[in-house]
Amino acid sequence: MEQSATGEIQAAANDLLNLINPRSQDKWLANDITKMIESSEPSLSPKCCIYKVPTDLRKVNEKAYTPQHISIGPFHHGDKRLETMEKLKVTYFKRFVQKIAPLNMENLVSIIRRREVDVRHSYSHTSELSSGDYVKMIILDASFIIMFFLTIKHKEWTGPGEDNLTPRLIATVRKDIRLLENQLPFFIIDELYNFAFASRSNLLSFTELAIIFFQRSNTRDISLDPNLKIRHFIDLVRTSFLPQSISQSLSKRNDRKKVKHLYNANQLEEAGVKLKVGSSKFIFDLKFKNGVLEIPSLKFDDKTESLFRNLMAFEQCHYPFDGYFTDYIRVLDFLIDTPKDVDLLVRERILVNFLGDGNAVKTLVNNICRQIFISETNSDYVDLCEDLNKFYEKRRHRWKAILRRDYFSSPWRTASTIAAIILLVLTFTQTELECRRLSIVEIDRLKTQLKNKFEMKDLGESKKILGVKITRERAKNIGFLTQKQYLKKVLKRPNKQLPRWRHTSSLVSLCLQLQMRNVTSDYMAHVPYANLVGSLTYAMVYMRPDILQAVSMVTTEAEYMAVADAIKEEIWLHGLIGDLGILHKHMKVLCDSQSTIHFTKNQVHHS
Predict the structure, then answer these.
(1) Residues 70, 173: contact at Cβ < 8 Å?
(2) What tens digit of pLDDT does each residue of 287-328 get?
(3) Those residues with Cβ within 8 angstroms of residue 90's Cβ, 6 or more apart along the chain or in another chain
(4) Which of 108, 211, 451, 546 has its CA 20 to 30 A from that of 170?
(5) Interatomic CA distance for residues 267 and 402, integer angstroms
(6) Beta-strand relationship, 468-473 and 478-482
(7) Hey, how many other C-beta atoms are within 10 angstroms of the C-beta on 24?
(8) C-alpha closest to that of 539 among 462, 484, 477
């Protein structure tokens, strides 16, 4: 013991002397650096395609990247939350073995073990599992996926006494195996499938089964692509969103050029841009031509955020310079700034909102690009956004849109606008004649010519036209237009049931109260409601633009209630005719009020 202790003390003393000596110190440091290099992990393999989500992305919404029911692959293997599905995997593996019996289990294991290194190189992080546990994990996960897909395609493959393949299970598994961290390399599943079912020519290939399982309405059939190469399921989903020939359908990305600004959907519409649902199957196919922006339809539901986040995370890790899906979401983020933008896109059938609330879609889209790094953008989108911004910034487009929206959006407004234009033309004509100071002889000659062609009576200078009184002060070269007498006539009490009105605003308030109140039809029979609203509309066009919003609300609600009553009547009649045994289709109820139609389509006003 004494000799051992003496040896340790002597070694420590030698180390201390070596550190004091500069040359010995350099040698010790060089050895330490060499050991560090030798113990360091190698860089990512060229075969790597399955990644752990970067920490800054995961922190934004950790649940969107984490499996909730089943683990596939090594990253979440052993998670206690997912132990229930491990039992189901064993059940499916037992059924897998039964379907390919007789089976030499050693051959099965050797096939997987032979590709173990390639599978490990497919992941960005090294697994601590032993070789045996790793091979066992691959066999269970791959056989589960194979049997899961086959059972969905062939219901008769369900085991005896088993009926566990519910729509809920299918939906939850589909959601979890579309997560970036929850993947197996596609090649290992495909090889196991071919080993087990190569002799069954009546079965589809595993690639075809996977495409059917993940097929969406707005994606292409990638099974027809001769150059198809699938790395894993999230890569398959991304590929299905892309056109078959990226080089032809999607332009190259501009180095260091990206979309920095785009006006939102409501701003573009107010500037005269017509939003239209695109006919293309590919969501990336955004087009702007002749003032029309075409956007293919896109569905939002409770699985959308998880899918979009994992697709973008995959592009950030594997396709940092080909992030076409990220480009699309970025443009969508610019277009949607408020819940009103969502409502507009839903109204135009561009978005299908299964989340129910416009604010939920707005929050999803605005938050999904957080911590996403974008160095460059698809040049087609850059040009598209520049064209839209230029269109918006031209004043004449905004003026045309305002004119169409405020003065020609309904038959009432169109008629009022035309009447106002006629009045102005007549007024300007009168003013022009006065400015020319025609002599009495010339005026009389003009009147005589008009009398020879038309039946007319000379009433002298115009003093009143269409309820508008014209007053002139020739000495001061000024004139006045007023509807005072017209408004006085409107404000007179039409019957004893209604109060006397002193101001136009009081009349507007009464119309609104009649809309809000549950009045009887007998009461309304004595109220000249339509006459009052029409009179207010006429006054609004000429002298009282301040009551525009209130009058518009009155007319919209009146039309809406009339349409509602008509539909109730139609439903009752349809039921009555049906009870009599007569088959009859529902009648179509037509409405010519654009404001009422928009009010009806706006989901904000309906639960």
Answers:
(1) yes
(2) 999 999 999 999 999 999 999 999 999 999 999 888 889 999
(3) 140
(4) 108
(5) 12
(6) antiparallel
(7) 14
(8) 484
User: Tokens 């589909």 sit at which residue?
Assistant: 174
d(CA 343, CA 603): 7
Judging by beta carbons within 10 Å of its beta carbon (0-12, 13-18, 19+), is residue 48 exposed, middle or buried? Answer: middle
Report the alpha-carbon distance of residue 170 to residue 265 in Å, rounded.
36
Tell me how far apart the alpha carbons of residues 116 and 163 are, in angstroms, rounded to a whole number: 34
Sheet arrangement for strand 464-465: 464-465, 468-473, 478-482
- Would you state the structure tokens that stand for residue 100, as one six-digit string? 């390919």
Compute the distance between CA of residue 439 and CA of residue 350 in angstroms, rounded to an integer. 64
3-state secondary structure of 178: coil
Q: Any residues with CB less than 8 A from the CB of 272 and at least 6 apart, and which?
A: 291, 391, 397, 398, 400, 401, 404
Distance CA 217, CA 297 (A): 10
Q: In what order do the strands lie in the sheet with 292-296?
A: 274-278, 292-296, 287-289
Beta bridge partners of 469: 464, 482
Mean of all residue pLDDT scores within the chain: 80
Contact by Cβ (8 Å): 508, 547: yes
Largest CA distance in the chain: 145
Instruction: Identify the bridge partners of residue 464 per DSSP, sorted by sequence position.
Output: 469
Whole-angstrom CA distances from 488 to 82, 500, 537, 549 are: 78, 11, 15, 22
Whether the full predicted model's pTM is greater than 0.70, yes or no, is no
277 CB contacts (<8 Å, ≥6 apart)?
294, 295, 296, 297, 348, 349, 350
Are residues 110 and 183 in contact, defined by beta-carbon separation less than 8 angstroms?
no
- The pair of structure tokens assigned to 301 is 């539901």
Select the more confidently predicted residue: 527 or 130.
130
Using only C-alpha atoms, the chain has a radius of gyration, in whole angstroms, of 38
Give CA 591 to chain center in angstroms: 29
**Whole-number Å distance between alpha carbons of 177 and 85:** 13
> What's the pLDDT tens digit per position in 322-363?
888 999 999 999 999 999 999 999 999 999 999 988 899 999
Task: Give the containing element (helix H, strand E) for 481.
Answer: strand 478-482
How many whole angstroms separate alpha carbon 326 and alpha carbon 425? 55
For residue 158, the 8-state DSSP code is S
DSSP 226: T
CA distances (Å), 431 to each of 194, 393, 396, 436, 467, in order? Answer: 92, 37, 29, 9, 19
Q: Which residues pair with 292 in a beta bridge?
A: 274, 289
Q: Are strands 468-473 and 287-289 parallel, antiparallel or unpaired?
A: unpaired
**In terms of Cα–Cα distance, which of 68, 63, 69, 66 is closest to 85?**
69
Residues sharing a CB contact under 8 Å with residue 144, sequence separation 6 or more, in sequence order: 88, 89, 92, 93
